[in-house]
Design goal:
It is a single chain. The protein has one domain. Helices cover 53% and strands 8% of the residues. By secondary structure, it is mainly alpha-helical. A hairpin with a 2-residue loop joins strand 2 and strand 3.
């Protein structure tokens, strides 16, 4: 499935969410989720960390129209769910499901 990671997240009023470096994008949310360490994953294997790194690099290098497998999307959703608030999770899930 091809996903546009340049999409920007909005607040509940429909305004683009902006931080000091600019608008928050699907790209930044997904990469941050893939690169984070989680309390419940203290024994994560090097293989899994490398897989997450490779996926983050794919998103970072391409940004727009990134072709991902269903299992990659599932992993990203799982990690975004751990890392962010409902506002971010809801929008990210919809964008990843192309809704």
């Amino acid at each position: 499935m091809k996903i546009d990671f340049t999409k920007q997240l909005k607040d509940l009023d429909g305004k683009t969410i902006v931080e000091k470096d600019g608008a928050i994008t699907l790209k930044s949310i997904c990469i941050n989720s893939l690169m984070a360490n989680y309390q419940d994953e203290k024994n994560l294997s090097g293989e899994e960390k490398f897989k997450r790194y490779e996926l983050a690099m794919k998103i970072s290098e391409n940004g727009k129209d990134v072709d991902l497998k269903a299992e990659d999307i599932s992993l990203i959703k799982q990690l975004v769910g751990k890392a962010f608030t409902p506002l971010v999770v809801g929008q990210t899930y919809k964008m990843l499901e192309d809704k």
